[in-house]
Write a structure and sequence with these properties.
With about 120 residues, this protein is an alpha/beta fold. It has one domain: Cytidine Deaminase, domain 2 (3-Layer(aba) Sandwich), CATH 3.40.140.10. It has four helices and six strands; from the N terminus they run αββαβαβαββ. The chain has a six-stranded mixed sheet with strand order 2-1-3-4-5-6. α3 runs parallel beside α4. The two termini are about 25 Å apart.
Length: about 120
């Protein structure tokens, strides 16, 4: 939540981030979750950025529309702190998008594409 400045002040906004590994490359907040997603798509297009090594983070639900947009951007991983709809999961399976929901801290649910994730062993 360190990037969610508008959310901290006013609430009722969605945030989206384009990431490379654990690095946030671009972050945007908007009252509409689709507007936030489309802003990232536009940023990628304007800057000629390929999505093949990216992770897309959103605060919104993982719906079929979100999965379709991320798939069309060429991004293989879609991550959210919220849940997923059944149609979102079905679309992720159909399009091959790795779908991760309920991501908070070190906890998350991999709904599709677990074989694409490299888990690190926790050091005591």
């Amino acid at each position: 939540r360190s990037h969610n400045e508008v959310y901290k002040k006013a609430g009722a906004v969605h945030g989206c981030a384009l990431c490379t590994g654990s690095q946030i490359d671009f972050f945007v907040e908007d009252v509409g979750r689709h507007n936030a997603v489309d802003s990232i798509a536009g940023y990628m297009w304007l800057n000629n950025i390929s999505g093949d090594d990216k992770i897309f983070y959103t605060t919104g639900r993982l719906t079929s529309e979100m999965v379709i947009k991320v798939s069309q951007m060429g991004i293989p991983v879609l991550l959210s702190r919220s849940g997923a709809t059944q149609m979102g999961l079905d679309m992720a399976k159909q399009s091959g998008v790795t779908l991760i929901s309920r991501a908070r801290g070190k906890h998350f649910m991999v709904l599709n594409g677990a074989e694409n994730i490299q888990f690190e062993e926790e050091v005591s």
